[in-house]
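Bit of a strange request maybe. I'm writing a small parser for structure token strings and I need a real example to test against, not something I typed by hand. Could someone generate the tokens for this chain?
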Amino acid sequence: MGSGDAGNTQERWARLRFAVVGPLLASPPPSGQLRTELQRLAQREWEHPTGGGSVRFSVSTIERWYYQARSAENDPVGALKRRPRADAGRERAISAVLIEALREQYRTHPSWSAQLHYENLAARVEADPALGPMPSYATLTRAMRNRGLVRKRRRRRTRGGDETPVSTREVLSYEVSRSHALWHTDFHHGKRRVLTPAGEWKTPFLLGFLDDHSRLGCHLQWYLAETAEVFVHGLCQAFMKRGLPRALMSDNGSPMLAGEVAEGLHRLGIVHARTLSRAPHMNGKCEVWWALVEGRLMAMLECVEPLTLKRLNDATVSWLEQDYHRRVHRELGVTPHRRLTESPDASRPCPPSAELRDAFRIERTRTVRRSDATVSVGGVRYQLPAPWRHLRDVRVRYARWDLAGIDLVDDRTGDRLCTLYPLDKRANAAAVRRPVRSADDGEDGGAAGNEPAPLLGRILEDQAATGLAPAWLAHPDSPADDHDPGETTP
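Reply from user aminoacidic:
Good idea to test on real output. This should exercise your parser:
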């Protein structure tokens, strides 16, 4: 594992490629029109993923991305990632003799910086070529990190031991050609309050997911809050009922823009289309659906007192399946169920519930505390296992509403390495401490012997070769120093 910059860049490039070819996957062009669509996309400008301005792509490049994503039905985004190098994360070969010299130097001087270790080791190699070729500074520092040879604090010796405005454009009705190619989603603020078990009256929020082509209600549920956790809870139920859609359209509400939602849709290969600012008509099918809910369902519940959240959800799901899906849609001329069965299906199989839960998590880099090898997320500390104690920072994946456990992931491949759990200080109070063998530590961390460092020795030899004494004078009040044991008393 490294710093994570390379992995983040590859992730941003994969997202850009999927944003280019995603609409073609959601709504494939008619036969013979693919070349025209590719040429149209090649004329567009896209924002560079690393912030380098706008960029364009050729027709052949977009065509290659399209076939790569289409061939990977279950993971189109992963197919668009650049494969890591075969030697990624591997250090260049360093002779065993030089590594042993480095370990010996570290045991003697654990407080030295990596630069000072490098220069002193280079001085030793220059004096003794048998140690092997001197590696580059980057290779040496990587080898030190991999072996846990990190810099330690020097011990003190004690005595005695803006958003761009959108231009006005015409408003046109639209509809995709396949079922589950596009879903609409939104929150609806209820007009009636429900009674909670705590004896409080609260206004519920209705979360719904509507298929654009068939007008099928994929899921409909009332909640007491409008949060990202609630949105993911309802969205996963819609996935388990109907499968994965190709695209999802929402407004710019904070639950839909949460990092967990963006990461989850990206990992599942779903294009997240958001409405423009001050353009609610782009998601107007949901508004028509809300009017139907208020005009039929809620009108039939007006005499129910008191209305609880459970009773409201039971009535809502029953009305959706038994009434709305079986009634002829005024615009379509058929029922949503029939429209769904007679149209081509663009959905994909839904992954298991555990995989769905893990998908909707954000990925962040956290710095490892050197004292106890822990990382902090949301004010909670997590213990790193021994194989990863030497890392400076790690990549973790978690949901902010569920901190019972977070995943440690490889920042190059995104693979899960292990699960980290909150630090149990009470259990650690009675636990036996195991020795840390990740670094070759000296007994007291101090210098051994009476010889100067190799680099300083070479500097003193160069000064002696000039035939000049070091240019400094002793102060008259300073006590006379003992003579150098190496010198002969006249």
